[in-house]
Amino acid sequence: MGNNNSSLKRKGIKMELDKNVDYNATDLENLGAETKLKCHMPSNDDAIDRVHMFHFFQRSLFQSDFSPPIEERLVRESCKVLDVGCGPGTWLLDLANKYENSSFYGIDNNLAYPNEIKPGNLNFVRADVFDRFPFPDNKFDYAHQGLMRYTAKPEQWSFLISEMIRVVKPGGYIELLATSRGEFKGTGPVLMKLHEAHFSYCLEKGIDTKTMPNLDKIIKLNPDTPIVNRDEKFFISGPNGGKIGMVYQDIHIGFHKSEATTEILSPILGISKEEYKTMITKDLIEELKHTSPEYSLIRFWAKKINNN
Ligand SMILES: C[S@@+](CC[C@H](N)C(=O)[O-])C[C@H]1O[C@@H](n2cnc3c(N)ncnc32)[C@H](O)[C@@H]1O
Predict the structure, then answer these.
(1) Are 225 and 165 in contact (CB under 8 A)?
(2) Most buried one in 8, 131, 219, 241, CB count within 10 A?
(3) What is the pLDDT of residues 150-180, one digit of tens each?
């Protein structure tokens, strides 16, 4: 398994972030078969690398792959675990290799996940997560959702969360990962301009990124999940955030300087593509040396109670 040409390997991120991580676990040759996807979807090797890198970044930040207390069950029982919007399947590949007694399922409408070269306890299903999930009620012990921050409209979050709760057994868990910019603490003018442009682009598409830090309110509305836990970790992007800040800077700069993002954000900012590229690769990098923009990642998790 694996692709030795992954740019993650070339960058040596494995060594820096987490010594236990095996990047060979994913066969990047199999990824990106369909590249008709829009911005914010992993549609080429660079974007897929960023998704992988983000997985290891968040694992390093939380020092764990998940927050609900399910590890013992994953080891001892034959649990069923679902990852919603699984992308290239990085999280699932990690867990399927680690918890051999359990079975893992990923759903995504993008064929970025490996079809053949994968552990026997891992299955992928192509499905739209904003339609009814292709699984019966109470099938899973744990339903997880990694990052889908620029994808869902407010009403789609409610649907997606209700589907996650439906397919989980009473006594099982749901978990969703969210990002937050809070008060934009420590943010310099260049980064602020970028955030405002991106925010207005998302709003135009009906996606309010401010919904994410409040997903707990949506989860709590479901009578099956009245108690929601919030596990939040703060970090600073850029050199003032140390090693983890530099990894996040790489992910963020990579996203912003991609062709798709350049195409979208340069007209919103009223500048040419060349000026936009200079803004990212020079002005932003320079600004990050003197500022400390604070971000956080939040894991919301809840146990499904038995309402009968
Ligand atoms: C940023 S990626 C995150 C991948 C993975 N959850 C992770 O954290 O590594 C977002 C994923 O959501 C998927 N996605 C977006 N809209 C979707 C939809 N309507 N149905 C299924 N998957 C969707 C995209 O294809 C993409 O793989």
Answers:
(1) yes
(2) 219
(3) 788 888 999 999 999 999 999 999 999 999 8
CATH of domain 7-303: 3.40.50.150
DSSP, collapsed to helix, strand or coil, labels residue 272 as coil
Alpha-carbon distance values, 133 to 84, 199, 244 (Å): 9, 29, 35
d(CA 203, CA 146): 21
pTM confidence score: 0.86
Q: pLDDT tens digits, residue range 90-111?
A: 999 999 999 999 999 999 998 8
CA 1 to chain centre: 23
**CB-ligand 1 contact for 106 (6 Å cutoff):** no
Q: How far is the CA of 46 from the centre of ligand 1 (A)?
A: 16
Who wins on pLDDT, 232 or 116? Answer: 232
Q: Looking at per-residue confidence, does 196 or 149 come out higher?
A: 196
The response to whether residue 147 sits with its C-beta less than 6 Å from ligand 1 reads yes
Looking at residue 151, its pLDDT comes to 80
Structural tokens at position 233 = 């970790």
Helix %, strand %, coil % of the chain (to 5): 45, 20, 35
pLDDT of residue 308: 61
Q: Decide: 176 in ligand 1 pocket, CB within 6 A.
A: no
Looking at the CA of residue 37, tell me the nearest atom of ligand 1: 25
CB atoms within 10 A of CB 48: 23
